[in-house]
Amino acid sequence: MKKVVFLLIAGLMVFAPIAVALAEEAPQKIKDLAQNELAGYGTDPVIVKAAAGENAKGKTLDQIKQQDNTWQNTAGIVDFMKALMENECGQHLREIQGSKPYFAEIFVMDNQGANVAMTDKTSDYWQGDEAKFQKTFNDGAGTVFVDEVKFDESAQSYLVQVSVPVVDGGKAIGAITFGIDVDKVEQIHPATNNQK
């Protein structure tokens, strides 16, 4: 009996991580969407202007972290958060969000990962310590980053965050993150028989 239990546990230890990794990886159609459609928003003039304008303010990382602390300890949506939803870029992001049913949220970050504009309140103000910013900004080199699929309790749906660099003059000056509803992408871009 002990041998059977041991073999069962050993088998689970070997195969469980593989199953979990496969279950969480974003589908190929999301990766294609990221490269083909979403990456193009990185050169959108309204978004570039907003990121460049925020970078020009010269905020220190300490100032950003202090604002982040205030943000995380503030319930609801207050004036300094509304400002990021109602500025020119925030309004533009809402138009983009309304253009596709699979856009759950969109937010733009500056060159340090601080929020510049958003469609919905993010859980924090500073994304600079997270993969969505670090991998996308990539020290100014810029790259597209597709995170793992996660179940969002508030939306009651499976979402994946896709982040693309904001690019000006061939250099990343910030990043944009799109919260994508995986099921709604599936409805618009149904699976084909020639998937890899």
Explain how this protein is built.
- The protein has 196 residues and is α+β, with helices and mostly antiparallel strands.
- It has a single domain (26-188), classed as PAS domain (Beta-Lactamase, 2-Layer Sandwich).
- The protein contains eight helices and six strands; from the N terminus they run ααααααββαββββα.
- It has helices spanning 2-24, 28-36, 45-55, 61-72, 79-86, 88-99, 131-137, 182-188; strands at residues 103-109, 115-118, 145-146, 150-152, 157-168, 171-181.
- Strands 1, 2, 3, 4, 5 and 6 form a six-stranded antiparallel sheet that branches.
- Helix 5 (79-86) crosses helix 6 (88-99).
- It is globular and about 40 Å long.
- The protein starts with a helix and ends in an 8-residue tail after the last helix.
Furnish the topology, listing elements before pairings:
Blueprint: H1 2-24, H2 28-36, H3 45-55, H4 61-72, H5 79-86, H6 88-99, E1 103-109, E2 115-118, H7 131-137, E3 145-146, E4 150-152, E5 157-168, E6 171-181, H8 182-188
Antiparallel strand pairs: 1-2, 1-6, 3-5, 4-5, 5-6
Helix pairs in contact: 5-6
